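Hello,

Our lab assistant flagged a job as stuck in the queue for most of the afternoon. It eventually completed. Since we weren't sure the result was trustworthy after the delay, we are filing this so someone can double-check. Below is the sequence as submitted and the structure that was eventually returned. Let us know if re-running is recommended.
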Amino acid sequence: DFLVLDRRTRKEYVIEHLGMMDKIGYYNYNLNKIGILEQNGYLLGVNLLILHETSDSPINILTFRRYVEEYLI
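-- returned structure --
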């Protein structure tokens, strides 16, 4: 969803926000998309960050903040 740059390290990150993971078509589409990202050198926790939510479990802003602090500040 987003390509961001850590201005200190000049490292690029892809941030994927998976906002409808309780919808099976969306889920399957995004599993395939993650596979394509991995094939192109993006690795979870290295330069690929994933946030997820469902209609019953919205995104946790504290988790998002921790990602920002860990990887982008």
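-- support follow-up --
The delay was a queue issue, not a problem with the job. The result is valid. The chain is about 35% helix and 20% strand. Helices lie at 24-39, 61-71.
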